[in-house]
Write a structure and sequence with these properties.
Chain lengths: ~375, ~425
């Protein structure tokens, strides 16, 4: 880890967030992402490092600690990876001055085509050339160990501010094109309470008149909160129990749901009930649209095979103690998330445009660096 | 009034409304009206009716019309459910309704008696009492007059809760028996014969049929099976209890859902017998379906196109099971067969009363945060039934055998009868 004197305040701030994550005092993809960025900003502003590798290692260790505290909140790891990606980008821009990595010539060449498919590592010029070529970044300067950090920090702060801005404007960006996705007199199905979907539907309601059918989403019954929020915004809503999803599907024009995390193969973790809605929609050939910010893109994809990949919540909302004598005789399962296969989803609407599940891998390649997939 | 005249009147009143409207309360109101006018005659009829209702004075008309436009404005989504009709509490009884029927109506409307079999048996038992108390008026024969006597009773029951297919089939059989009864029999004998016929019907078509189904379906259950069932079907309960009594070792997953949360009753029966049970709510079914060996569900009625009309949620369970290649077996007596063809869950359905009639919400969530009643822009619907398409069903177990859903229409043939 980094030098000891600056790590103590860092440690405290990181430990606080880690314990809050562990105790689930901060839940929800957006919340956790915001908190992580703020912690990383503090860490970086107080960190002492004299070359890029030390900085990366500091951030990586912070990331590891946070991810271990709550592995089911994927956005924590995603935010750390995003910050690392920005840091490396800023570092390379700063250390090369005006030289740009990506080739600007327009000639079509097989070599260039193949090279572009390689992981970014190979496109980055060798480290040896950096130290000699530009004097703007002094790495490993024995006389002035903080010079490197001093010159780089303002740029890093800007980069982190970019990440923060992106997180804060997620809802606005996603709702920008809402009116193109929803038409008048449509009937939309949604489940649970996703703030992204809520913002999306409210934005569309300003231009179109349509109906929203919301399923209860037992056992959290977050559908009720969504129904109250949407109906008070003037959207005509119908609240139905989950059992009628198939019954009503023949009249539904679109299914719009939110995601907890988007996996690299285009599948997603979403609130329990999403799998039912998506499968019923597929049976009726109804399009399924997922509204999610890009901070939910997770570079892992083989998580869902484990039974424990799903977060399990308190069983008393399924079978509470009021049932008395049943409680010890019966097993109760209350998974919080469902895994929805990429074949069931038609489109992801993100703050950076609309994408089909088959191009999620490309988004991930652009957003994160390969070496960060395993923190 | 021809369509043209109706349209003319609509245009006139629309112009009057536009002229006298101060500020448009509904932004989409004028959009809705032309959209409605474009619909065919059936839609034109209700709108003209509602427009005619507002035909008082110019001011009265415009305010009434604005009120009508607010209800018409309740977008298309709510209109498509308007035919369901909520159950109303049984109103003042018209005519002579037998107290047994009144009591039964109350029990139905409060869902104290629920389930196709239970309702049918309760109805027939009540009718036995009615028949015994019936006295043929002079100059009338029992076989002709009894049916007219029973009609208002039946109407009263229907007003409490829409009739189930089972009740319908049973009553049809009863009416047939009444009209077949011998004119020369003394009254008490005729009544006794009728009551005997009712008892035979219950015995043959429901109780013994249930036992045959229990044996047949029991052969499908092997040791080590994980059986999934949805909500509470009396037939499936019989099957599971019977198989457990036969010594088979299996475990059961009970899936349950609002609005009725009937699965808890099944759960208490099964766990009291010592059967290892798992309980979960409908949305969680995706996590367990891979471990299930067979799905057993009951039915409210079977239709001749092979579709199964059953408790809301059954279609979802069957769909998920089919996706994972788990056999879906419907246990159903033949008297639940209906000759109608049903294509979706909309043409015939029933809504549960809103509010928390079945205390189906967990105590962990305080009631005031839940939406239990209608509000502006908010409608609450609790459909009680849904239709499972034949593609999701593997087989139907009846007392005449195990049949694939495509052969359901030949059940009357299998019973050797021309009518059911």
């Amino acid at each position: 880890m980094a030098t000891d004197t600056s790590s103590i305040p860092n440690q405290r701030v990181v430990e606080t967030l880690a314990s809050r994550l562990r105790r689930r005092q901060v839940v929800g993809s957006h919340e956790t992402a915001l908190e992580t960025v703020l912690v990383l900003r503090q860490v970086i502003s107080k960190a002492r490092f004299s070359n890029i590798d030390q900085l990366v290692e500091i951030i990586r260790s912070v990331g590891r600690k946070l991810v271990e505290a709550q592995p089911k909140e994927h956005t924590v790891g995603n935010t750390v990876r995003k910050v690392l990606h920005h840091i490396r980008e800023e570092y390379h821009t700063a250390s090369q001055g005006t030289a740009v990595v990506s080739t600007s010539n327009n000639t079509l060449s097989i070599a260039r085509f193949v090279l572009q498919g390689q992981p970014r590592k190979q496109n980055i010029p060798q480290k040896g050339t950096l130290n000699e070529s530009h004097g703007t970044l002094k790495e490993n300067n024995p006389d002035d160990p903080d010079a490197f950090a001093r010159t780089l920090k303002p740029v890093l702060m800007e980069a982190i501010q970019d990440v923060l801005d992106e997180l804060e404007t997620v809802y606005d960006n996603i709702s920008k094109n809402a009116k193109d996705h929803i038409h008048s007199d449509e009937i939309i199905l949604t489940i649970g309470k996703s703030s992204t979907v809520e913002a999306f539907l409210k934005a569309a309601a300003a231009y179109r008149k349509y109906t929203v059918i919301i399923a209860d989403t037992a056992p959290s019954y977050s559908g009720h909160d969504m129904a109250q929020s949407l109906s008070s915004a003037g959207i005509s809503t119908v609240l139905v129990p989950d059992s009628s999803i198939y019954a009503l599907m023949s009249r539904i024009n679109k299914v719009i749901i939110g995601a907890h995390a988007i996996l690299a193969n285009g599948g997603m973790f979403a609130i329990t009930g999403s799998l039912l809605a998506a499968t019923a929609a597929r049976a009726h050939s109804t399009p399924v649209v997922v509204c999610a910010g890009q901070f939910k893109l997770t570079p892992q994809w083989n998580l869902y095979h484990e039974y424990g990949a799903l977060d399990f919540a308190d069983p008393s909302s399924v079978l509470g103690f009021e049932e008395g004598n049943l409680v010890d005789k019966v097993d109760v399962i209350n998974p919080y998330y469902d895994f929805v296969r990429p074949e069931l989803i038609d489109a992801f609407i993100t703050n950076d445009g609309d994408h089909p599940p088959s191009s999620v891998y490309r988004l991930i390649k652009e957003a994160y660096d390969d070496e960060d997939y395993e923190l | 009034m021809t369509k043209a005249e109706r349209r003319e009147q609509q245009e006139r009143q629309r112009a009057a409304k536009a002229a006298t409207k101060s500020t448009g309360p509904q932004p989409g109101g004028s959009n809705q009206k032309p959209a409605q006018a474009k619909k065919g005659a059936p839609a034109a009829a209700p709108t003209s009716a509602s427009v005619k209702k507002g035909g008082k004075g110019p001011d009265g008309k415009s305010t009434k019309e604005m009120k009508e436009t607010t209800t018409d404005d309740s977008a298309r989504g709510l209109r498509i459910f308007s035919h369901f009709g909520l159950p109303k509490p049984p109103g003042p009884t018209k005519g002579d309704i037998h107290p047994a029927i009144i009591r039964l109506g109350l029990q139905f409307s409060e869902f104290k008696i629920a389930g196709a079999n239970a309702r049918c048996i309760a109805t027939l038992t009540a009718f036995k009492i009615v028949i015994q108390d019936y006295i043929t008026p002079p100059n009338n024969t029992l076989s002709r007059h009894l049916v007219t006597h029973l009609s208002p009773q039946i109407t009263h029951l229907v007003s409490a809760r829409p009739m189930s297919i089972t009740m319908g089939n049973a009553i049809r059989q009863l009416k047939l028996d009444i009209s077949d009864s011998d004119i020369d029999l003394p009254e008490q004998d005729a009544k006794n014969t009728l009551c005997q016929k009712i008892d035979d019907y219950i015995n043959e078509r429901i109780i013994i049929a249930g036992q045959v189904i229990q044996e047949t379906a029991g052969t499908k259950i092997k040791d080590g099976d994980v059986i999934l069932t949805y909500a509470r079907s009396s037939v499936v309960e019989q099957v599971l209890v019977g198989a457990w009594d036969d010594g088979k070792q299996f475990s059961v997953i009970v899936v349950d859902s609002r609005p009725m949360l009937e699965g808890k009753k099944l759960l208490s029966v099964l766990s009291a017998m010592g059967i290892p049970c798992t309980y979960l709510l409908l949305p969680s079914i995706g996590s367990v379906i891979t471990e299930v060996s067979i799905v057993l569900v009951g039915a409210h009625s079977l239709h001749s196109n092979g579709a199964v009309y059953s408790r809301a949620g059954t279609a979802l369970v069957a769909m998920m099971a089919k996706q994972h290649s788990v056999p879906v077996v419907v246990c159903c007596e033949t008297y639940k067969f209906s000759e109608t063809v049903q294509l979706d869950s909309f043409t015939k359905n029933e809504l549960a009363p809103s509010g928390d009639l079945f205390s189906s919400f967990p105590l962990t969530r305080s009631k005031d945060t839940l939406t239990l009643s209608k509000a502006a822009n908010l409608e609450i619907l609790n459909p009680l039934y849904d239709l499972t398409p034949p593609s999701s069903i593997t087989a139907v177990v009846t007392e005449v055998g195990v049949i694939p859903p495509s052969s359901i229409s030949s059940i009357p043939l299998a019973l050797g009868r021309t009518t059911l």
